[in-house]
Amino acid sequence: MEFVKREFLFVIFSILMIGFIINNPDEIKNLYSYISWSTIRALIVLILITTAFKISNVFDDMAINIIKLFKTEKYLALFFITLTAFLSMFLTNDITLFIIVPLTIALNLKNDISKLVFFEAMSANVGSMLTPIGNPQNLYLFREWDISFFDFIHTMFAIFIIKFIILIIFIFILFPNNKLQIINLKSKKRDYFLFFSSLLLFFTFIVALEINFVRFLIPIIILFYLFANIKVLKQFDYFLIITFMLMFIDFSIMAKIPYIKNIIDSINLDFFNTFNLSILLSEVMSNVPATIFISNFSKDYTAISYGVNIAGSSLVLASLANIIAIRMLKNNRYYLTFHKFSIPYFLISYIAIIFYLKIV
Known about the structure:
single chain, mainly alpha, 21 helices, globular
């Protein structure tokens, strides 16, 4: 049961795949072709490097030293939200939250930190939307889109700025100037060699993405971590990779089901319909599966990327990052409380972005 709770997405998508294959055994021969291998390869490298960053403890220690500079809840929130947005651009939203949320909880504040964690989750979704490596759906779209790293950033920049400005306004309004009492800050042992070597590998990865060289980089990185710090390979999230492979298979098969295909085909998938459908699907199936699914019907990757990324900061199900953050609070009532902040933020952001898209 513990495995099912921890890897519930893997279990769900495995059951779906088995059901689809039982219903249509001929699909077995298509399974390999359904997987976007360029996305999987890039995701493997990204998770390896970000796992190394986490193990190095350098980010944790840097954050602890900066936190000591802040005296009020409002400015601590501004710092954490900005840091989360920045890190998620490069470490992915999920990995960033695995670093930031435990650090926030470990501060042992007398202030209620649940609201701060909610906004850290929203900030991770906002920051990660800017770059092609910020989250899994962007990585997939980037590989399918076949554009440059900086072209992707240019496409997403205006939407990111709108969402980030609104997020900062929310912080100023919702977080008070209450004084902080921070106790029991513990500095962890840092591995600077692992951190800086991984940083070098990260920049090498960006270059490899541009020249389609990632497949040759994977064995080099695996060999490096095998000798540099085997913990990276031990703590690598293997089930996450398999889960994404299952997502590609399940939603590629689902897109071929006649009833579903007829419904989607009946919609005129112009820019705004694709944009809104991407949001709607993200709310009911999360933004990564929604991206894979709708890409079977539309190649308007700008509309899809806008929709699935904007949706991430709405319902808790819309992004796995939301679930990760709230699970760490260890209180199920927060799954509902989260929406008290996320839904108003989503609606205001949505209206502002629609207005922007109508005038540009």
